[in-house]
Prior knowledge:
Blueprint: H1 8-75, H2 78-104, H3 111-174, H4 179-208, H5 211-218, H6 221-232, H7 238-352, H8 367-501, H9 506-617, H10 629-633, E1 653-657, E2 661-665, H11 672-678
Antiparallel strand pairs: 1-2
Amino acid sequence: xxxxxxxxxxxxxxxxxxxxxxxxxxxxMAIINMSRITTKSEYLAHEYVPExxxxxxxxxxxxRTMYEMRGYGYTEEEEFYNKALKEINAIKNAIxxxxxxxxxxxxxxxxxxxLKIAEDATAKYLKYVDATVEVNKKLAEDRTLMxxxxxxxxxxxxxxxxxxxxxxxREIRTKNTNEARLKKITLINNIIxxxxxxxxxxxxxxAKRDPKIFQEALAKFPEVHSLLDxxxxxxxxxxxxxxxxxxxxxxxxxxxxxxxxIKNWLHRxxxxxxxxxxxxxxxxxxxxxxxxxxxxxxxxxxxxxxxxKASNKVMITGLxxxxxxxxxxxLMLTRAITGPINKGVIFAKRLAEGDLTATxxxxxxDEIGQLAGALSNMGSKIKSIxxxxxxxxxxxxxASQQMSSTSQQMSQGASEQASxxxxxxxxxxxxxxxxxxxxxxxxxxxxxxxNASKGIQEGSEATxxxxxxxxxxxxxxxxxxxxxxxxxxxxLNAAVEAARAGEHGKGFAVVAAEVRKLAERSKIxxxxxxxxSRNGVEVAExxxxxxxxxxxxxxxxxxxxxxxxxASMEQKTGADQVNNAMQQLNNVTQQNAAASEEMATSSxxxxxxxDSLKDxxxxxxxxxxxxxxxxxxxxxxxxxxxxKGKTKGFEKSINLKKSKEIVIDVExxxxxDINFENF
Length: 679
């Protein structure tokens, strides 16, 4: 099968498959190289770097141990020794870590040998550390013995000198001075001075850590012994001789302690040198181990660089090959696709221009070839459809003429019916308005009657209240009348008593007379008010009785007005329903009239559109001549129907909605091309 006959999917699969294959090859190579680099990086991370770290830790701990032991050797302080022990433990831990790493590592070939050297050096160093501790203990003992001997030496010399000075003083007092005494004093002072020089040299040598000074001081002991021998020649007293023997014994002890001290000191120096040598061996092993780890690290880095360079070259080469293959397949696919598509575009343009005789020639069996076949079939179908449209347009034109005449008759009858319904509707609207007015008046009257009934009832209640109040006033006035009567009697009694009193009661009699006058006036006013209140009570009772008789009539009137208002409301509701029904009937009639007019107009417009449709179809070239006489006979038909009712007419389009919607919009013949493209 030729390449052009292959399916587009197969062509794309071949092209992209080649690119994917190259990408997979490059990816696999990259994965292999990355795996190699990863493996070496794991060796680097888990073997070489830990090896360097262990060697560095060993070296650091060894240096610190040597430093602390050097301090311990110089100062003999336990603090340095304890720190050295901690660093020694760190060395042992580092060696243990190295042995554990060596048991797991696969690439570290020199680690085991260096660890063995480090372990032996550490053991050797520990032996010298222990020896240093023993020597320091001996030095401490020798130093104690030297101090004790020196103290006894100086003490005995001072005692001997004191005794000689006392004897010298006694001799001076007795004027029996002895030259031998002076010699002994001079010699013992010399012995003390030599002892001090020895002791000072001892301290100075320890302070400066210089054994030569110590040895120089030790060389002065023969002088001490010589001076002791000389002083014995001048000594005759047995006690002084014994004292000199004790001084010589202490000098010998001091000398022996110093000899032991210098011996142990020099031995410690030898141990320190050997300890330093062992430490240097350990450090050398650590350096070699670190250098081996760094060399392995450098080798892995070099291998990774070379691998990355090779991978880079392979990736660049593969990408260039993929680019070339991609361009080749792109050109082939472009030619295989664009050529047939251009033929299809030319075919579609000819169809768009109305040339239904156009053909498409694409000789390939892929999707584009199938598309070309489908386009060719589409052109044939359109050509067949256009021929059928021409036949159908003639049938539509004749049928639309008949429909137009029938719909005009229907439109006229519907218009007359709509006019009658409008008159009935107008009368019903007036009746509904009158009933509405009556209803409103009844409701107003009902409210007035209710308010009047309520007012009269309240007036009756107020009258009853007033009657009760006036009765209470009358009762109170009777009480006032009784008070005036009692006051009058009291005034009479007061006048009688005043008359009995004679001259002394004249003033009181005047007052009693005035009180009596007031009581009489009060009684007269009270009688008048009592009479008036009785008359008012009678009038109020009669008015209340009349109001009580009027209230039932007013209430009955209000009830009747309510019934009238209710009947008016029901009548209004019925009138509204009838009015609504007439309005609906009027609307339906108007719609029928409008629909009839529209159908008449539409039928004529349909006829015109059928003619226009023929003009449109004439746009297509189906390769044979057609009869134009039918089309010319009905081209200029225009709808003209006058309506008497409310109608809606078409201006430029007709919508016929049944199972489908067909919209034909023809404004003028100059837009046929645009209409066809939309179609």
